[in-house]
Amino acid sequence: MKTSSVVKWLGHSTVMIQFPGISIITDPILSKWIGQPGFGAFRYGKTPRLTKAEISNTDVILISHAHLDHMDISTIKRFDNTRTIIMTARGTSDVVAGLEFDTRELAWGKSVEFKNTTIKALRVNHLNWRYPTEIGTERTCNAYLISHDGYNIFFGGDMALPLRFRVPDIPVHLAILPIGSSLYNNNAHISAEQAIVVADTLHSKYILPMHWGTYSTTIEGREPIKQLFENINDPSRIVIKRIGQSWILKKK
Fold this sequence. Notes:
single chain, 252 residues, Metallo-beta-lactamase, Chain A, seven-stranded mixed β-sheet, 11% helix
């Protein structure tokens, strides 16, 4: 019997993507607090527990950019640096250099093949620094197209309009898109309504909304998910609505 492909939202931009033969986790962050005194955020959303098996069986940590709420050192340390590899945006590997993982940077438009899976880096419109003092840095921000056995998943990381990448000419079965933070910084984030536009542009039937309801960096509470349901024509397209939920991937 063929094993199902499953995605699980762990809060913020952390999604566990499990294909037969490979397990990928995006922007892992499970910490109660991120940042430094006077510059950070606390977690108010549910914190699902990662099992020892989920941690030990993770093949790829996929990081979109170097912001503290996407590249969390204390969470990354939980994974096995002798087994798990890190794939991250160009100019960001220095942040995790001391953790001794096999770390690979992906420049825009470049792809890597790993365990029968293709991961392609796409350019997005977002703030590229880790700390505000790094303005002008050469760090970059990625979205990713993840392809495995006929499934194609778009992971948006953090992004704002206009889109900076060429829309893939293959069917996208699931668009994992941020919907929070746009109320106070719409130059760096898309709104829930704009997430629908992006999903439609990608010709993706299903949407997994993320980057909301987890940390105090996204101050809108449940407003983003409310707006998503109010603006989408077919609510069945929204596949996960609460932290900790899972969904079996569908091609139709």
